[in-house]
Amino acid sequence: MGLLASIFTWWNGATLGTSLFTRRHGREVGRDETGNVYFQHRKDPARRWVIYNGSNDASRTPPQWQSWLRGQLGDVPDKSLPPARKFQKPGLPNLSGTDGTYRPAGSLARGGKRPAATGDYQAWTPD
């Protein structure tokens, strides 16, 4: 990312100000499988933050790292949580507004048709 873009864009990675603050006051504590980098303040360990690899979207942060960011875990997830179980699926980012959005049966966006009424509905009419 170019210098000019890093000064003005906050939605894709870190701005210049965040990068400078991180370099001066932050200590890297870990990375997740998507490339997000997690930091802790050198003097105040309760201050924690993430620099995203790509767009700044909190739904791209795995649940275990969300817990660490909120102070629910005292240490990084790799050290304080048990290993993932076989049945656990990896988290998904927020898919709203994309082709991966959930569309129930009958949704016009899905191209389906609504099921016929079952007859248990009686329309209201004013008296």
From TrEMBL:
InterPro entries: NDUFA12. Residues 55-69 have a biased composition (Polar residues). Residues 55-127 are annotated as: Disordered. Pfam families: NDUFA12. It comes from the Bacteria. Signal peptide: none annotated. PANTHER family: NADH DEHYDROGENASE [UBIQUINONE] 1 ALPHA SUBCOMPLEX SUBUNIT 12, NADH-UBIQUINONE OXIDOREDUCTASE SUBUNIT B17.2. This is NADH:ubiquinone oxidoreductase subunit NDUFA12.
